[in-house]
Design a protein that fits this description.
Elements lengths: L1 E2 L2 E3 L4 E3 L1 H9 L9 E2 L8 E5 L13 E4 L36 E5 L19 H11 L18 H13 L6 E5 L2 E4 L4 E3 L13 E11 L5 E6 L3 E3 L2 E3 L1 E6 H5 L4 H12 L5 E8 L2 E5 L2 E6 L7 E4 L11
Parallel strand pairs: 7-8, 10-11, 15-18
Antiparallel strand pairs: 1-6, 2-3, 2-4, 4-5, 5-6, 8-9, 11-12, 11-16, 12-15, 13-14, 16-19, 17-18
The chain binds zinc ion.
């Protein structure tokens, strides 16, 4: 049985697989088996598969699996949602929305400062007590459980990961993503970089993707990510790139993940990566030549993959 949410003993918090993955690569979570069923008083052990993989694709996406036995009273075992909601049900008597209706994930461009907080866990404390305390001390969203999802998305990697998950559980058509206040269908959030004229692109940031070459800059202080395909400005073809500086990697909480991927790729005989990034290209001119460039505000806004993580129709 798979779960969307589990209680992390190490983080002392309820987490979805995306957050578990972030916390693993930032060092807060170290053991992929240190999770429990989120149900009250249930001690069924849960593992987060693929937590330690620096790859994700249609087959390798982090997810929770129960390997222990649920307590007799555990609602999760019987398919009940975990009631982690603090607010009482809406006063107009409306039922909470369920998965069969359109569900909107919110993509936030900044993580809250508390995202990677080390847990305040007393060693030796009773784990069920800690679980109860975690439940009452944080504002969780409703619909948590076997088939709900929680929390905003803070990275392009998580957008890709949820897209993959929704494709596999066949809920993609009900899913929408809210970016900068606008709801868009999941199916339409990715745009391939493929010789489009810059004037035909949206006038706001979106998620662009494509195959790119990865190498070090001459100054040896950054990775250059140069997309295989260019953007056009009328008849002029503009080399399209983004730069990931060592300083940006160093300041990033998931620097292990980012550094591992970029350095592995840059050292390959054919140093190519499948890259997603959230942004809007800008034209730069240097020595009389113009380039299209994506500025990255932080490394949550880029996802670098060894291979195309999406179905073959994206792989171009
Ligand atoms: Zn349980």
């Amino acid at each position: 049985m798979s779960l969307d949410v589990a209680y992390s003993i190490e983080a002392n918090d309820f987490v979805d697989p995306d957050r578990a993955y972030d916390l693993f690569w930032s060092g807060v979570i170290t053991n992929k088996r240190a999770f429990l069923c989120p149900g009250a008083d249930c001690a069924a052990q849960v593992t987060c598969a693929n937590l330690d993989k620096d790859v994700q694709n249609m087959r390798v996406v982090p997810h929770f699996k129960v390997y222990g036995i649920h307590s007799e009273a555990c609602g999760i075992a019987n398919g009940a949602p975990v009631d982690l909601e603090l607010e009482p049900a809406a006063s107009d008597g409306q039922e909470r929305r369920t998965v069969d209706q359109s569900i909107v994930d919110v993509f936030k461009l900044e993580r809250p400062d508390s995202y990677y907080d080390e847990p305040s866990f007393e060693p030796g404390a009773d784990v069920q007590v800690a679980k109860k305390r975690a439940k009452s001390s944080r504002p969780y969203t409703p619909r948590l459980g076997e088939s709900g999802l929680i929390g905003p998305i803070y990275s392009v990697r998580s957008v890709v990961s949820r897209y993959i998950r929704y494709r596999s559980d066949k809920t993609l058509e009900f899913r929408r993503l809210n970016i900068a206040g606008q709801d868009v269908p999941y199916a339409s959030i990715f745009k391939c970089i493929w010789e489009q004229d810059l004037n035909d692109l949206p006038d706001h940031p979106i998620i662009y993707y494509g195959w790119a070459f990865v190498d070090r800059t001459k100054a040896q202080n950054a990775y250059r990510i140069r997309f295989k395909k260019n953007f056009m400005r009328e008849n002029e073809s503009l080399v399209t790139s983004s730069f990931v500086s060592d300083a940006l990697i160093e300041s990033y909480k998931l620097k292990n993940l980012m550094a591992v991927r970029l350095s592995k790729i840059a050292q390959k005989p054919k140093p190519t990566a499948f890259v997603f990034l959230y942004g809007q290209p800008a034209v730069r001119t240097s020595n009389g030549k113009s380039y299209a460039n994506f500025d990255l505000k932080n490394l949550d806004m880029i996802d670098v993959n060894y291979d195309c993580p999406l179905p073959p129709n994206y792989d171009k």
